[in-house]
Amino acid sequence: MQPSGARIGVVGLGKMGLMHASIFNGLSASQVVAVAEPAAVTRNAFKELNSPVRFYDDAEGMLRAEKLDAVVINTPVATHVPISVSCVRHRVPFFVEKPLAVSVEQAAELGRALRESPTPHMVGFMTRFVEAFRKGKELIASGCLGRLQRVQATIYVSQLFAQGEGWRYDRKVSGGGSCSARVPT
Q: Where are the alpha helices (DSSP H) in 27-170?
């Protein structure tokens, strides 16, 4: 049976990948048709609920084999940019979960690829729509705080307070979260 609406590919079936796949499959205008997920256990569980979906071990294989209208990237942070760059090479619009990269240098690689081959894309920075952040941007733009020279932000995720295993606990893969950064002048 031919899917109706936008043909979506999902890379990574962790918590966010499952959520995005469910949302796309719940909309009449889209359908998840392909998934790149190396873990057999996760693939098999998803297959039980979504039989027409084709599975791939990696994003590159999925992008080569499928004609997709969009891809959603939900993988460990260190892989976001390489997979996004692959989407750009294949000219497939993509949404990538936050944070975008483990470093500014890594993010710059995606910027270069997008300048060479403009591709519709989006990063899941949903807090920009939270009223407190909107108000903060308004205050900064008004100049009432003077010229900012440094901004430091912290966010705590309770599941990470305890010692654990997996990519979220490895700074090289997760990026280690937001760091203090100097505001360009």
A: 40-49, 59-65, 80-89, 104-116, 131-142
